[in-house]
Amino acid sequence: MVRVPLPSPVTGNIVQSIKDVVQSLVDDGMCHCEKIGTSNYFWAFPSEAAIKRQNRLEALEKDVEQMEAKQRELTDSIEKALLGREQTDERTSLNEELAEIEAQWNAQQTELQTFKECDPELMKQKRDETAVARDAANRWTDNIFIMQSWVCEKFNTDTADFAKHFGIPADMDNV
Questions:
Q1: 160 and 145 share one domain
Q2: Does pTM top 0.90 for this prediction?
Q3: What is the pLDDT of residues 7-43, one digit of tens each?
Q4: Domain coverage including residue 146
Q5: Rounded to 10 degrees, what is the CA torsion of 111, 112, 117, 120?
Q6: Buried b (16+ CB within 10 A) or exposed e, 72-108
Q7: Domain Mnd1 HTH, which positions (predicted)?
């Protein structure tokens, strides 16, 4: 049982600090708290900590055993996988042939990249994107003309003054 000294004017204990210390002990699981009536009772048994350590040790030992078993399984599977991969003349020649084919494929890919500009699918995609961009440019040009006519009517100004003030070129027109 944990005995907490009562605050005394001689020792200068602060009640709140005792509450905080006891609460941190309860939070850490080092002691227990039970409310009986209007009082809180705190206790801890010396053997309880030893039992917790023993349980933790047993759990860790079990984990170690499981990890060692898994390691043995993995090393066995690696050994089984390497059984058919001994270096033979046939395997060496196949690896060389594979390397030649990969080098040839890489060379063809780089050559393909040089001709990518003439790809019909890429050209079609660029035409489609150009049409979308042209439509967007025309829409914004129309919006500028609509805003210009509204401002000129609302504030009784000339379109040339509006264009000059907002930096709109005189030859601006739809694309």
A1: yes
A2: no
A3: 555 556 677 788 888 888 888 888 888 888 888 888 8
A4: 120-166
A5: 150
A6: eeeeeeeeeeeeeeeeeeeeeeeeeeeeeeeeeeeee
A7: 12-46
